[in-house]
Design a protein that fits this description.
7 strands; membrane; magnesium ion transmembrane transporter activity; about 350 residues; seven-stranded mixed sheet; transmembrane helix; magnesium ion binding
């Protein structure tokens, strides 16, 4: 292994994170940017690749040399570089002549259930070359790299793309399970009467699911066009694998939609509980205000510095006023409590 590849996690001198020469009749062989350039140069010069062999190159697009290397050696279509510059990153697979251009979205390697923990993977698939590129470490492509390194490699570039999408679907299942567990915890806390800040947590989870569903749902029209008119080099088995992988996505996305509805119901229940608690607090405040009203009125009247204040010369005047205040307060309290019992 070249020293640059072993010391730089972001890729070798060309930004290549990993490269594998794959084929149906041979074990995966790891190669580096210099070897990949030689292999591609021989292929472009008219040399035929060995039967069933193809190359997978995975690049770190944050590396300054990655784009230059791909432009110089990989002979990728302009549509791939246009997709890198396009602001639309919704998941899609499109055909450009004899090349498939795929824009996929995946969870970060250190996914923490935040809406921002989603990044894009750009892919170009040709008969003898599959190129993937990302700017941040992603879960699914790392799992695929581990599987290929262990010898579990598909026998064609389209099958490798389909395996990548299935790996993404499996990762989404794990995310859905994690979100479900968090929703269960919030629901248990709600039933136990411990609200805390659970509504804010539910909002974060709902935004995460909405973002995942918006970014990860494959565009049906583009996929339909591709499967109806696949490239000539794509076999029927490869097309079926691609169709199956997208159906797995659809199942997970339906589960996400169900979770969104469940979160919405929990948010409404929490909002209703908060409103009920606020109503109780407001009622207590109203009762206290009503009970204090007779005292405030009488204190204001008898505290005026004018002549003719009643009971001012009576030795029992203070206790008479106290009795009047208590009577008015008892009547006001009885009226308030009666209205509460009727409601």
């Amino acid at each position: 292994m070249p020293p640059s590849a072993s010391l730089n996690y972001g890729g070798d001198s060309a930004g290549l994170i990993c490269g594998y020469l794959l084929g149906a009749d041979a074990a995966p062989r790891e190669i580096y940017s210099a070897q990949a350039a030689q292999w591609l140069a021989g292929l472009q010069a008219g040399g035929a690749a060995l039967q069933g062999q193809f190359l997978w190159l995975h690049f770190n697009l944050s590396h300054a040399q990655a784009m230059r290397w791909m432009e110089r050696h990989a002979d990728l279509p302009e549509a791939f570089f246009d997709a890198l510059k396009d602001r639309s990153v919704s998941t899609r697979i499109e055909r450009d002549d004899d090349t498939l251009i795929a824009v996929l979205n995946d969870a970060h390697f250190d996914f923490a259930f935040e809406p921002s923990d989603i990044a894009t993977l750009w892919t170009s698939v040709a008969p003898h070359l599959m190129v993937t590129g990302r700017t941040r470490p992603l879960r699914s492509v790392d799992a695929l790299r581990t599987a290929v390194r262990s010898g579990n490699a598909p026998c064609s570039s389209v099958a490798l793309l389909a395996e990548l999408m299935r790996t993404q679907a499996s990762g989404l299942v794990d995310i859905v399970r994690g979100v479900t567990q968090r929703i269960d915890d919030v629901e248990d806390a709600l039933l136990a009467g411990r609200l805390d800040h659970k509504r804010a947590r539910l909002g974060v989870l709902r935004r995460l699911l909405v973002r995942l569903q918006r970014l990860l749902a494959p565009e049906p029209a583009a996929l339909f066009r591709l499967l109806q008119h696949p490239p000539a080099w794509m076999g029927a088995d490869d097309a079926q694998e691609l169709r199956d992988s997208t159906e797995e996505f659809s199942v997970v996305l339906r589960d996400m939609q169900g979770l969104q509805e469940r979160i919405k119901l929990l948010q409404e229940e929490i909002a209703a509980s908060v409103q009920e608690a606020n109503s109780r607090s407001l009622f207590v405040l109203t009762v206290v205000t009503v009970l204090a009203l007779p005292i405030n009125i009488l204190a204001g009247l008898f505290g005026m510095n004018v002549g003719g204040v009643p009971l001012s010369d009576d030795p029992q005047g203070f206790w008479i006023i106290v009795a009047v205040v208590v009577a008015f307060t008892a009547v006001a309290g009885w009226l308030a409590l009666r209205d509460t019992r009727e409601r």
